[in-house]
Amino acid sequence: MAFYIMNRNRQNSESGGNFEVHNTSTCEHLPNPENQLTLGFFDSCGPAKAAAKQLYPNVAADIDGCFHCCRPCHTR
Question: I need a surface site. Which of 2, 36, 50, 54 has the fewest CB within 10 A?
């Protein structure tokens, strides 16, 4: 199991970017600690991304996986 977080800031906010889910144990592109929202421990990025969408339903359509550490969940 790995620990996942979500960036509280949009990636590329100038074009209305996404809130990215990150695997803290493998990602070299983590947001600063003050910009991390805790999701918890999950077996993979799929359940972590689903949890993020449940926790933050007002931005659920804009939640995506990090290209670097959650590539199977990166859709944009």
Answer: 54
pLDDT of residue 13: 58
Distance separating alpha carbons of residues 34 and 44, to the nearest angstrom:
24
**Residues, the chain:** 76
Of 30, 39, 34, the C-alpha closest to 66 is 30
With 0.85 as the threshold, say if the pTM is over it.
yes
Specify burial of residue 34 (Cβ count, 10 A radius: 0-12, 13-18, 19+): exposed
For residues 54-71, one letter each, b for 16 or more C-beta atoms within 10 angstroms of the residue's C-beta and e for the rest, the string is eebeeeeebbbbbeebbe
3-state helix, strand, coil in the chain (%, to 5): 35, 30, 40
- How far is 70 from 76, CA to CA, in rounded Å? 12
